[in-house]
Write a structure and sequence with these properties.
Blueprint lengths: L1 H18 L11 H17 L23
Helix pairs in contact: 1-2
């Protein structure tokens, strides 16, 4: 989910850069600020915060000897 949000933020920053607009607040919503927000969301995703691929920390579901393995 965080990676999707990061992609949306990056797309919005790219759109603002292409249209060369500042949304009326040049120091609040500029391209660099939105890119930093996107990098923050992406780093949180890669750090394992939120639901990422791999199931969200379920770990091994079977503890002990597996049957049929000698």
């Amino acid at each position: 989910m965080l990676a999707i949000l990061a992609a949306i933020v990056f797309g919005f920053a790219l759109l603002l850069d292409f249209l060369d607009t500042n949304l009326g607040a040049p120091d609040l919503f500029n391209t660099h600020t939105l890119m930093l927000i996107g990098f923050l969301l992406l780093s949180l995703y890669l750090a394992g915060v939120g639901n990422g691929p791999g199931g969200g920390g379920r770990g091994r579901w079977y503890y002990g000897r597996r049957p049929g393995r000698g």
